[in-house]
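Our preliminary data section would be incomplete without showing what the modeling component actually yields. Below, a chain of 268 amino acids is followed by its predicted structure, encoded as tokens that our downstream tools consume directly.
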Amino acid sequence: MEPVIRVENLVKRYASRELGRRAAAFTAVDSVSFSILPGSTLALVGESGSGKSSVALCLACLEPVTSGQIWFDGRDVAALSERESRAVRPKLQIVFQDPATSLNPRWTVGEIVAEPLLVKGRVANRERRERAAQGLERVGLGAEYLERRPAELSGGQRQRVAIARALILEPKLLILDEVLSALDCSIQGQIANLLVELQRALGLAYLFITHDLRMAAHLADEIAVMSRGKIVEQGAVETILRGARCAETQNLLGASLVDRETEAVRER
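Predicted structure:
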């Protein structure tokens, strides 16, 4: 089976500028390689600043790549021009951590979900509304949410809206950048289960980015642990959980156990 996406030796550097000093390059992603098969999930796990989100932005064609290849649909999207990238982006959708900052507060939910169709100029107004209603139904929200605005929704409902918007163009890969971390524990479980259901129904591939190794184990088929821009450990979920070799992975496992104990205390 051919992977949906294959990343080879991805490097992303940012220029840092300080007054009175020469500009220096900061390497956020350093020779990262992985692939994701259709209908499967790769969890990219690491602490804040490990380079996970920079990988996400490069894959979504939102940041230029310093070097390396990103193979998708038979093309190296890292080598495409801005104009060529626009044709690829609909099939590589990203959902961010905080939907409150990614949803236009002045628009209705229906307008937000249908926005990608409007940008692409694919369908008439009436069909856009119908597609938006179908998208909301798919993520567990009824058509009655079409006229609501983001401020009227809970955090979990806003994240469902963001997922519906990402799915409206029928992508092959969904990049989920810390989509659960801003939610309450009970809502995290609901959204995680929704993602599992959507993957089964639509055959989507996921890149699930998180610092929570426990949630990664629940959702992923494979885990890659990042530290200082590099993948330091990668393998099947059981292999990572039971035979972690790197200190970074062991620290993440320890943090997950502490979080689980804290949740148990809160529930008592």
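The chain has a mean pLDDT of 89. The CA atoms of residues 44 and 119 lie 30 Å apart. Preliminary results of this kind motivate Aim 1 of the renewal.
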